[in-house]
Structures are given as structure tokens and as C-alpha cells.
């Protein structure tokens, strides 16, 4: 018999109801225990690898930062290790019953490029349980995670424990691992908390918890912490003494002039009209002594319309809208060296 267009049309008409009938009869197994057929397994992995490869080609990423290991490890320990395990922490048995099993990443990361890992971390993998990053605007956080994944295969259990164990101090254990025992910061990508006002801390924590300020790392850190506890932590942290600013003077740039008078021709206001001392509005954070990389990242988020926050975050977004990249870097460097001032209530 010759196959004619007519036959193909019949097949196309019959296939969907037939599939629906099979599904309705309940003969298609959905149990995870028996695993996939080898061919299904191959096909799913082939599809996943191809999809990630193509998406990553269209979305290249800059080099992952080399100064973000601690906050990324802290996030990995809470958000990823429960499925993927970590050095010295095998995957729990209930996770091994998932289909597909979350793989031990130590042997896997080497087979992906940075852009591919970034793609997986930001977008997750459909139908597998691999979740997307909870803050989709934060490509920079995804890149911090890629840097950690690159380091993972070389970490001994002791190295890993050293990265994720919270030091004892006056900050709760759920915070001190990244922000330091006295809130004085944990490297260039993590803000110092000591010296900020209670109002600013409380408003920031509420914004993370409610999603108004996007950060996958902080969203997870405050997840499940009752709002009264967060308010209590804010009250407590606001009493911690402010710390020394940077020791080296910032390089000579136009930054102090922008801070004092702004760049009216670009619509940039004088930063110190709000951030100068004494700050009249407790919702305005202290910038002196914050790490430059952190300040620059926040300024880029404000400028790009991705940084929420407390009730006055929109005025800050307007202030940053006209900033150019070099201006952001020089302002961040200058403010990070400015001496910190005592906190206000
Ligand atoms: C609920 C469990 C779960 C959580 C939580 C989870 N993953 Fe996954 N992940 C998976 C599963 C399942 C796969 C396998 C996907 C597949 O086989 O296509 C996977 C795959 C991956 C892969 C690709 C590995 C490979 O070679 O196939 C990477 C990289 C990865 N996850 C990183 C992370 C990171 C980083 C986090 C934390 C931010 C995370 N995962 C959180 C379940 C999880
Ligand atoms: C896994 C690391 C990690 C943990 C744990 C963590 N933080 Fe953070 N925190 C960060 C990072 C990274 C940022 C910057 C996020 C951003 O880009 O908005 C941040 C930002 C903040 C800010 C905003 C500060 C500012 O200047 O705007 C506050 C407040 C804060 N954290 C408080 C806490 C508290 C309280 C806890 C404990 C409940 C906590 N953090 C736990 C890493 C962490
Ligand atoms: C009109 C008042 C105002 C002006 C002018 C202003 N800011 Fe802000 N800025 C704020 C407020 C309010 C916030 C806090 C937003 C929030 O998270 O609720 C803020 C936050 C910031 C932050 C984030 C700090 C952190 O800990 O996350 C940076 C960085 C910053 N400003 C830098 C600048 C720079 C640089 C300029 C000058 C170009 C400037 N600001 C001008 C009001 C202002």
C-alpha cells in the first residue's frame, strides 16, 4: 500500500485521542522507583545538554568572581547540599529515590562551561526537581555560585566545613557565617551590618523576606524566620559598634566632587545630600566602610531598575539612573574608603 497524505492525516487525527486514552486508562507508569528505560534516560540527558549548550551560546557570561567563595558556599550548604551533597556530607537517602537523582556535582562540573553552569543555576532544569534561582534578576549571584561550583571538586571536607561553619559571636548563627560574628562583613561581596540604623536593617530584611529586594542568597537566609525575630535581630545589630573604614586612601578621582555636588547635567544628585552626616532619614544607609565590590553591585542594580528596598528605594534608583560604569566604580571605591560614622537610632 502506498502511504498517501490522507493516511498521514488520519494518523495525526487518531494519535492525540489514543494518547489521551492511554493516559486515562492509567497504564503509563509514573513511579520513580523503577527508573527510566535506558533509551528515555539517554534522550532526556541529550535534550538537557543540548538545550543548556544552545542557551549558553546565546548568553555568554563574564569570568566568575574569585572573592565570593564564602557567601556562595553558605548558600550552597543550605540551598543545594540537601539535594546534591557536599564534601563530607553525602546525599540523604530520600533524595537518592528521586528520578532523576540529583547528581554528586564533584564529578560533573568539569563537563560544563561557565556560561552553561550559569544557565543551569539561574534557570533550573524542567521536570527534574532542579529549581531555578529565586531572584531571576541576579545574574551576579548566579555567577558567584558558578565560582563556588568551580572550586567544589578541590575542596576537602575540612575546607568545606571551614567555609560553611558559622563563627560564634553576637550575630545569630544563621547570619554570622556570611556577615561575620560581629556583623563586620565577610569579604568584598557581603555588606557590613554593624553601623547601620535599626530602621534601615529592619526595612531591608522585610524587603528580602517579601521579595521587594531581590536576592536569592538573602531570600533563603530569611526564609522561615518570623518577622518579629528579624525585627529583633535588626534592633540588636544596630547596637553593634561601627568599624574602621579602609586603611588606604582612595585614588584621586572625580568621585568626591560627584558625592558633594552631583552631575546635574546627567541628572545625578549630590550623594552626600542624603548620605552625608548627620543623615536626617534613618532609611538612608551608611556607605562609609562598605566593600567597594558590594557598593558597585548595588549601584548597578539601582541604575538598572533591579534594586528594591525600603520605602525610599525609588529615590535612590532615580539618583543612580544617570551614572556611568566608571562613575559607579570610582564612587564605590571612594565611599568604601570613607571613614564610617557612628550609627543613628
Ligand atoms: C530539590 C533538589 C535540588 C536542589 C535543591 C538543587 N538541585 Fe541541582 N539538580 C537536581 C537534579 C534532580 C538535577 C539533575 C537534572 C538532570 O539530570 O537533568 C540537578 C542538576 C544540577 C546541575 C547539572 C549537573 C549535571 O551535570 O547534570 C547543576 C550544576 C546543579 N544541579 C546545581 C545546583 C545548585 C548550584 C543548586 C543550589 C543553588 C542546586 N543544584 C539545587 C536537583 C536539585
Ligand atoms: C549565605 C550568606 C548570607 C547569610 C547566611 C546571610 N546573609 Fe545577609 N547578605 C548576604 C549577601 C550576599 C547580601 C547582599 C545581598 C544583595 O545583593 O542585596 C546580604 C545583605 C544583607 C542585608 C542588607 C544590608 C545592606 O547594606 O543593604 C542585611 C540587613 C542582611 N544581609 C542581614 C542578614 C541577617 C540578619 C542574616 C541572618 C538571618 C543574614 N543576613 C544572613 C549574605 C548572607
Ligand atoms: C534623595 C536621597 C539619596 C540620594 C541623593 C542618594 N541616595 Fe543612595 N540611597 C538612598 C536611600 C533611601 C537608600 C536606601 C534604599 C533602600 O534599600 O531602601 C540608598 C542606598 C544606597 C546604596 C545601597 C547601600 C547598601 O548598603 O545596600 C548605595 C550604594 C547608594 N545609595 C549610593 C549612592 C550614591 C553613590 C549616590 C550619589 C550618586 C546616592 N546614593 C545618592 C538615598 C539617596
From TrEMBL:
Q: What keywords is this UniProt entry annotated with?
A: Electron transport, Heme, Iron, Metal-binding, Transport
Please provide an example of a Pfam family that matches this protein in its UniProt record.
Cytochrome_CBB3
InterPro entries, per database record: Cyt_c-like_dom, Cyt_c-like_dom_sf, Cytochrome_c_Oxidase_Subunit
SUPFAM superfamilies given for it?
Cytochrome c (SSF46626)
Domain Cytochrome c: from-to ranges: 67-153, 162-339
GO MF terms here are: electron transfer activity; heme binding; metal ion binding
The protein's superkingdom reads Bacteria
PROSITE patterns, per database record: CYTC
Q: List the PANTHER family.
A: CBB3-TYPE CYTOCHROME C OXIDASE SUBUNIT FIXP, CYTOCHROME C4
Q: What is this protein called?
A: C-type cytochrome
* Species name: Amaricoccus solimangrovi
Amino acid at each position: 500500500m502506498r502511504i498517501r497524505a490522507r493516511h498521514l492525516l488520519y494518523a495525526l487525527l487518531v494519535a492525540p485521542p489514543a494518547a489521551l486514552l492511554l493516559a486515562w486508562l492509567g497504564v503509563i507508569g509514573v513511579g520513580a522507583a523503577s527508573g527510566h528505560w535506558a533509551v528515555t534516560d539517554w534522550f532526556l540527558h541529550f535534550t538537557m545538554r543540548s538545550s543548556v549548550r544552545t542557551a549558553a551560546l546565546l548568553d555568554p557570561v563574564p569570568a566568575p568572581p574569585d572573592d565570593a567563595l564564602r557567601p556562595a558556599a553558605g548558600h550552597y550548604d543550605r540551598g543545594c547540599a540537601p539535594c546534591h551533597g557536599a564534601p563530607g556530607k553525602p546525599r540523604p537517602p530520600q533524595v537518592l529515590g528521586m528520578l532523576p537523582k540529583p547528581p554528586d556535582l564533584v564529578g560533573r562540573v568539569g563537563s560544563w562551561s561557565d556560561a552553561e553552569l550559569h544557565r543551569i543555576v539561574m534557570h533550573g532544569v524542567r521536570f527534574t526537581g532542579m529549581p531555578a534561582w529565586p531572584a531571576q534578576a541576579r545574574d551576579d549571584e548566579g555567577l558567584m555560585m558558578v565560582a563556588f561550583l568551580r572550586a567544589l571538586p578541590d575542596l576537602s571536607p575540612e575546607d568545606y566545613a571551614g567555609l560553611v561553619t558559622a563563627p560564634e559571636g553576637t550575630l545569630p548563627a544563621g547570619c554570622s557565617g556570611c556577615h561575620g560574628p560581629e556583623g563586620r562583613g565577610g569579604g568584598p561581596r557581603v555588606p557590613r551590618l554593624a553601623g547601620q540604623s535599626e530602621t534601615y536593617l529592619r526595612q531591608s530584611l522585610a524587603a528580602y523576606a517579601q521579595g521587594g529586594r531581590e536576592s536569592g542568597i538573602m531570600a533563603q537566609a530569611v526564609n522561615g524566620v518570623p518577622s518579629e525575630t528579624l525585627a529583633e535581630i535588626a534592633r540588636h545589630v544596630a547596637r553593634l559598634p561601627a568599624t574602621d573604614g579602609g586603611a588606604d586612601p582612595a585614588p584621586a578621582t572625580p568621585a568626591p566632587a560627584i558625592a558633594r555636588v552631583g552631575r546635574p547635567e546627567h541628572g545625578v544628585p549630590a550623594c552626600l545630600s542624603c548620605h552625608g552626616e548627620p543623615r536626617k532619614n534613618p532609611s538612608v544607609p551608611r556607605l562609609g566602610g562598605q566593600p567597594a565590590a558590594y557598593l558597585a553591585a548595588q549601584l548597578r542594580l539601582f541604575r538598572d531598575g533591579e534594586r528594591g528596598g525600603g520605602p525610599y528605594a525609588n529615590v535612590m534608583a532615580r539618583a543612580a539612573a544617570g551614572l556611568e560604569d566608571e562613575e559607579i566604580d570610582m564612587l564605590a571605591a571612594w565611599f568604601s574608603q570613607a571613614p564610617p560614622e557612628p550609627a543613628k537610632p
